[in-house]
Design brief:
The complex is a heterodimer of chains A (about 120) and B (about 110). Chain A is an all-beta fold and about 120 residues long. Chain A has no helices and 11 strands. Chain A has strands at about 5, 10, 20-25, 35-40, 45-50, 55-60, 65-70, 75-80, 90-100, 105-110, 115-120. Chain B is mostly beta strands and about 110 residues long. Helices cover about 0% and strands about 50% of the residues of chain B. Chain B is built from no helices and 11 strands. Chain B has strands at about 5, 10-15, 20-25, 35-40, 45-50, 55, 60-65, 70-75, 85-90, 95-100, 100-105. In chain B, a hairpin with a 2-residue loop joins strand 7 and strand 8 (about 70-75). Classes of the chains: A mainly beta (about 120), B mainly beta (about 110). The interface of A and B includes residues 43, 47, 103 and 105 of A.
């Protein structure tokens, strides 16, 4: 059974940094691109970042230059380093896995999320 | 970027009702559209992929249709566990984009 579990979310001040983690199990992690998606309170889901199997990375314009996605295949883990946090970055952050053989942006499994709060 | 417009934003219904949600893309996305269910504190759950295919394990009362720019998601005979928020998502063009969600509430 596929399982994704995020961690690392907490309350931080504007300008602060965090490292979010997502541990995966139940599939061959190294064979899949992995993605972070977030949802701010009362807002729609927003794609944040994707890392491919060859470690090519993609970022939303809203986080480019401040967030860094990475992966450790030996630990079945994808990370999101979030720097220079802004109030508008406060959200539930989810990691997601795509279907095998399809678009890397078509997600079939998600984790329950980790909450990032940003407040002075 | 493609914009996804979902409606209604909220919906009140009763157990046993038939419910329909629509999603419109700002440009043609063929059938590259998913529907998800989101409940507080839980992982989003894929229900429909490629616009009309039922995800393995999803109940058959969920269905989807459409192609191009206009899509529909239907729940026939609403169950108690279906009260949640539903999102559409396009994955035809980069960046992937989501609808604003439909919160399904008990009447």
């Amino acid at each position: 059974e596929v399982y994704l579990l995020e961690s690392g979310g907490t309350l931080v001040h504007p300008g602060g940094s965090l490292r979010l983690s997502c541990v995966a199990s139940g599939f061959t992690f190294s064979n899949y691109a992995m993605t972070w998606v977030r949802q701010a309170p009362g807002k729609r889901l927003e794609w944040v970042s994707t890392i491919t199997t060859t470690e090519t990375t993609y970022y939303a314009d809203s986080v480019k230059g401040r967030f860094t996605i990475s992966r450790d295949n030996s630990k079945n883990t994808v990370f999101l380093q979030v720097n220079s946090l802004r109030v508008e970055d406060a959200a539930m952050y989810f990691c997601a896995k795509p279907f095998r053989g399809g678009s890397m942006f078509a997600f079939d499994f998600w984790g329950p999320g980790t909450m990032v709060s940003v407040s002075p | 970027d493609i914009q996804m417009t979902q409606s209604p934003s909220s919906l009140s219904a009763s157990v046993g009702d038939r419910v329909t949600i629509t999603c419109q893309a700002s440009q043609d996305i063929s059938t590259f559209l998913n529907w998800y269910q989101l409940k507080p504190g839980k992982a989003p759950k894929l229900l429909i992929y490629d616009a009309s295919n039922l995800q393995t394990g999803a109940p058959s009362r969920f269905s989807g249709s459409g192609s191009g720019t206009d899509f529909t998601f239907t729940i026939t005979s609403l169950q108690t566990e279906d009260f949640a928020t539903y999102f559409c998502q396009q994955y035809d063009n980069f960046p992937p984009a989501f609808g604003q969600g439909t919160k399904l509430e008990m009447k």
